[in-house]
Specification:
eleven-stranded mixed beta sheet; alpha/beta; Rossmann fold; binds threonylcarbamoyladenylate; 26% helix; DHBP synthase; 18 strands; binds magnesium ion
Length: 426
């Protein structure tokens, strides 16, 4: 199968800055039949593929790229598991563009007219504040549900979210079906935050990838369960615990996930038990309470491996202080803004990858390093791309400087992903 990357320029499908600045802009938007632009054609093809074929379509969301299929058709949903090689007991998140779609999914198939609002009260504030956005709600799946059973993997609930990415909303509205969509990576790999990442993992397995540029948030949505008391965060993500706590009914929201869970335990979000977010190279994670590794430690850690990747955040020095001069700036990292100064400086942006050649204890080490700045939002945005870029440079091991996950911001999501990606934590 040929995998095409489809460009869809927003202005060409009548999504202008003006429109985007209006609340509920998606209610007003529609794709004009007279729009014969290539971009409109690409979006129509993707929507038609989703409605009619069983091959999933990859599309951008504000968190990560998703691999979408009509959530109401079993063969289409099976296509996702096949393309990703994902275990079938790991349920999928359903994506919608309107609340009436959600209400339809909360009611049994035959139950068309009903005056009561089926949306659980506990979620109404969250929906008002955070949708569209990176928040997934666990809701009850009715008996005689419209959803294909493969979406829920046998659970009596399902996860639902309304993404805010304009490409995603436009595609959802045009396809006019709820889309089940996990992250569009091959199972176990870091989630994709650019169309090229999807292509690297799924080339030949899917036919279309909508390219909407790099994702805004960079880590997946926060998954919450408000059906329990107290309500739980099942996966930390783009909406922080502090943001949730500021909503009535959510003041006591508790952490219901474990970063270091054993493979054979049964976490509440089934997906959290699998190997995840792992590049080919082994990842060594340093908790933020640990100092930058010393020269002796590094020599011991790298052993006879000579291609070393480093991801720096708040405190580590460039090149781990080993080689203060002589580096080459590579173009490996996208979204990059170069800062070529070897002195430590506070940069709150993603750097380009730099290569240092270092000789230590008769070892010749090639060190490939990327700094992600100090702010959790920026680190989250660049993390998966950094892991993928270092993998492409064939490093053997990646040393990562962790962040403080107790700050209530998205740093908990960053550390959750890193602890799962890491083979060794120090
Ligand atoms: O940001 C995101 O949520 C992305 C984009 C594409 O929207 N999607 C995503 O999907 O991350 P996925 O399939 O990679 O992760 C779904 C997570 C898993 O941890 C899964 O176990 C959990 O949601 N989940 C889904 N349905 C659930 C349910 N009924 N109860 C508990 N956890 C559920
Ligand atoms: Mg995933």
């Amino acid at each position: 199968m040929k995998t095409e990357i489809l460009e869809v320029d927003l202005a060409s499908i009548d999504i202008t800055g003006d429109l985007l600045s209006q609340p509920s802009w998606i209610d007003k938007w529609q794709l004009n039949n007279e729009n014969t632009s290539c971009d409109a054609g690409n979006l129509r093809r993707a929507a038609q593929g989703l409605r009619e074929s069983d091959i999933p379509v990859a599309f951008p969301t504000e968190t990560v790229y998703g691999l979408g299929a009509d959530a109401t058709r079993s063969p289409a949903v099976q296509g996702i598991y096949k393309a990703k090689q994902r275990p079938s007991d790991n349920p999928l998140i359903v994506h919608i563009w309107s609340l009436s779609q959600l209400r339809g999914l909360l009611r049994p198939k035959e139950d068309e007219i009903n005056a009561d609002d089926p949306i659980p009260e506990i979620y109404k504030q969250l929906i008002a504040r955070f949708w569209p956005g990176p928040l997934t709600l666990i809701v009850p799946n009715p008996a005689n549900s419209r959803l294909a059973p493969e979406v829920t993997a046998g659970l009596s609930t399902f996860g639902i979210r309304m993404p805010r990415n304009p490409h995603a909303l436009a595609l959802l509205k045009l396809a006019d079906v709820p889309l089940a969509a996990p992250s569009a990576n091959a199972s176990t790999k870091p989630s994709p935050t650019e169309a090229e990442h999807v292509e690297n993992d799924l080339n030949g397995r899917i036919s279309m990838i909508i390219d909407g540029g790099p994702c805004d948030v960079g880590v997946e949505s926060t998954v919450v369960d408000g059906l329990t008391s107290p309500p739980l965060i099942l996966r930390p993500g783009g909406i922080s615990i502090e943001q949730l706590r500021s909503c009535p009914g959510w003041e006591n929201v508790a952490v219901g996930y474990q970063d270091n869970s054993e493979l054979n335990s049964t976490p509440r979000a089934p997906g959290m038990k699998y190997k995840h977010y792992s590049p080919r190279a082994s990842v060594i994670l340093f908790e933020h309470t640990r100092k930058m590794p010393s020269e002796e430690e590094i020599v011991q850690i790298v052993q006879n491996r000579t291609n070393i990747g480093v991801i720096r955040t708040a405190h580590w020095s460039p090149s781990l202080g080993l080689g203060k001069t002589g580096h080459t700036v590579l173009n490996g990292a996208s979204q990059a803004h170069s800062t070529c100064n070897a002195e430590r400086e506070v940069v709150d942006e993603i750097e380009k990858i730099r290569r240092f050649e270092i000789t230590k204890s008769s070892l010749s080490i090639s060190l490939f390093e990327i700094g992600l700045g100090t702010r959790a939002e920026i680190i989250a945005k660049g993390l998966f791309a950094a892991l993928r870029s270092l993998d492409k440079l064939n490093v053997d091991v990646i040393l990562v400087e962790g962040v403080d996950d107790s700050l209530g911001d998205v740093s908990a999501a960053v550390m959750n992903r890193l602890r799962k990606a890491a083979e060794v934590k120090v």
